[in-house]
Amino acid sequence: MSEHLPALLVVVPLILAPVAALSNRPRAAFAAAFAGCWWALYASLALLTRVRSEGVISYALGGWAPPYGIELRLDLVNAFVAVTVATIGAVVIPYAWTSVKKEITEDRIPLFYTAFLLMLSGLLGITVTGDVFNVFVFLEISSLSAYSMIALGQDRRALTATFQYLIMGSVGATFIVIGIGFMYVMTGTLNMADLAERLPAVMDNRTIPVAFTFLTVGITLKLALFPLHLWLPNAYTYAPSAVTAFMASTATKVSVYLLLRFFFTIFGFAFAFGQMRLNMVLMPLSLVAILAMSLVAIYEINVKRLLAFSSVAQIGYMVLGISFGSVLGVTAGLLHIFNHALMKGALFMAMGCVMYRVGSVQLSKMAGLGKKMPWTMAAFVGGGLSLIGVPLTVGFISKWYLVQAALEQGNWLVAGLVMIGSLMALVYIWKVVEVAYFQEADSDVEIREAPLSLLIPTWVLVIASFWFGIDASTTAQVATDAAELLLRGGS
Amino acid sequence: MIALGLFNYWAVIVLMMVGFYTLIARGNLVKKLIGLNIFQTSVILMYVSFAKVSGGTAPILMDAGDHAGDAAGQVLYSNPLPHVLMLTAIVVGVATLSLGLSLVVRIKEAFGTIEEDEIESPSL
User: Fold this and answer.
1) How many domains does chain B have?
2) Taking Cα atoms as reference points, which of A158, A168, A281 lies closest to residue A230?
3) Partner-chain residue, chosen from A148, A159, A173, that has the shortest CB–CB distance to B107
4) CA distances from A434 to A360, A382, A400, A431, A439 (A)
5) Is residue B20, in this structure, part of any structural domain at all?
6) Tens-place pLDDT, residues A317-328
7) Same domain, yes or no, for A328 and A210?
8) How far A192 CA lies from chain B's nearest CA (Å)?
9) pLDDT of B50
10) How far apart are CA B20 and CA A178, in angstroms?
């Protein structure tokens, strides 16, 4: 069985999805989703261990040898991303049980778990596949299920947010297909490793830069790089809490991975950064994302929305790392994929706890919550410290690598701007802390601590974000190896 | 004449721009979806166009006697792969469109309108 693990990683959640839908009972659907998520965690960890000891795993789907058949190809980079996605899925799913019962009507709960499983398998599929058209198919599976989950939000504005996301997301995906089509015209292949071999011969043809441009715009739309982030804040704000926690920690991260895969493995570092001067585009945009979006977050009064804008800023950090085009920079980007998943997951889950008890995440409604929901707000502070980048948290590790990467290139300005971005994170986290801890609550409203079934998953992520901040040797080692692999141009 | 020889691609570009413009410029949500669909369909035409080999037939097994094949049983056929890819893309397009339209129905129920400027838009 173990040789089929790469396929089973994706297929098991995919098959459990219709099981969840057909069972049509919340409990049975939950059991299916729970099994799918934990299976994915087990499988991805097993695969990462195997990749670390044995090197690249290539799996020919259906026994058709690559490059003709579809290949699933795991190296350190995507095994690392798959573990990130599966970890968040496995932590969010027990949380979802309590949270979803409160926020979604009962007859829709089985369908929610179906969509959750589909999204998980879509994201894992994008991660492990070695075929560019397969990327598009899995991208649409995960996006369509994400749209339907966001539309389950209680607020009617969830519907308009979903519609906006659907339009922009579909345009992004179509841009990606156009880019893939141009690459196929020039090379006659869809396999990533094969493309990487054949592209250099036709690089001079203008079709390839055009394909590159379409892919860049499509992928940056999907990963919500400023100024293509417009779909993100509303979608995150109005989606059900569990969905926001899952999406914020996985969907955009997988797109960042796609960016790395297309630029470094397929087109190659020399083309993307030398000929196309990608860093000239990505670096300013990511810096604007960090500064402008942090500024917007400072003035935001809905805390989920505040965190959503902060997410756009954090994506800026990841892309900034990549735009250095150095081992340290890409390491910082990869590390931040994992680290940001931990902390943003924890923060959005803490907000889900607030939503569960208070019924709103408006800042004004959170006065005095520090006393009434001490564990929830402590989790928020823990995640917030990480977002700021205080030492001993994962946020510090990412920023440390990022600043090192900037200084390595003598870019003091960028290093300074990263610091300013951290200070701005301090301001918007402090804003919430001040209201929750230092303002008096309305004494007539009775609010209790969130139930343990919500608190435990939240705290798992908070503790993980400290754990990997104190002992970053494993994650940093994997990320560095993966970055070296990418910059060598493949596998 | 070269321009005419690339007729399919001109059609692709025109369709793509028509769809994209409708998508951006129209305020009616259904019209937006129609624009999106035209945009996606133009990509299907693009893939199918570059798969076509002039004089090629469908990629099916043929007897040597058939006029499309020569004596050795070798047949000039169009590249089947992009056609198959586009089958998937059509399915994706249908799924996107139906999800979008069902969203429009729910937006109509919740807001009473499907005109973008009449929906109290959540501020950005």
Assistant:
1) 1
2) A168
3) A159
4) 18, 15, 27, 5, 7
5) yes
6) 999 999 988 889
7) no
8) 16
9) 87
10) 14
Instruction: Choose from A174, A194, A230 for mutation: most chain B CBs within 10 A.
Output: A174
* Residue A234 near residue A460, CB atoms below 8 Å: no
The interface predicted TM-score (ipTM) is 0.89
Q: Strand A57-60 to strand A71-74: parallel, antiparallel, or no bridges (unpaired)?
A: antiparallel
Q: Is residue B85 part of a domain?
A: yes
What mean pLDDT is predicted for residues A378-407? 91
Is A372 in contact with A449 (CB distance < 8 Å)? yes
- Are A117 and A209 found together in one domain? yes
Per residue in A16-25, pLDDT tens?
999 999 988 8
* Residues in chain B closer than 8 A to A151 (CB atoms): 103, 106
Mean pLDDT of A344-356: 92
User: Same domain, yes or no, for A212 and A341?
Assistant: no
Measured in angstroms, the CA of B4 and the nearest CA of chain A are apart by: 20
For A423-458, what is each residue's pLDDT tens digit? Answer: 999 999 999 999 988 888 776 677 888 888 899 999
B65 part of a folded domain:
no
A164 and A286 together in one domain = no
How many whole angstroms separate alpha carbon B21 and alpha carbon B27? 11
* Residue numbers of the domain that contains B91: 2-53+77-111
Q: What is the CATH number of the domain that holds B8?
A: 1.10.287.3510
Per-residue pLDDT averaged across A91-112, rounded? 90
Least confident range from A259-263, A270-274, A315-319, A336-340: namely: A270-274
Residue at a domain's end among A248, A275, A302: A275
Q: Is the pLDDT of residue B47 over 50?
A: yes
Range of the domain at A235: 1-275
Interface of A with B in 83-142 (CB under 8 A): 133, 136-137, 140
**A178 and B122: CB-CB below 8 Å?**
no
Nearest to A45, CA basis, from A94, A5, A17: A5
Are the beta carbons of A163 and B99 separated by less than 8 Å? no
Whether B32 contacts chain A with CB within 8 A? yes
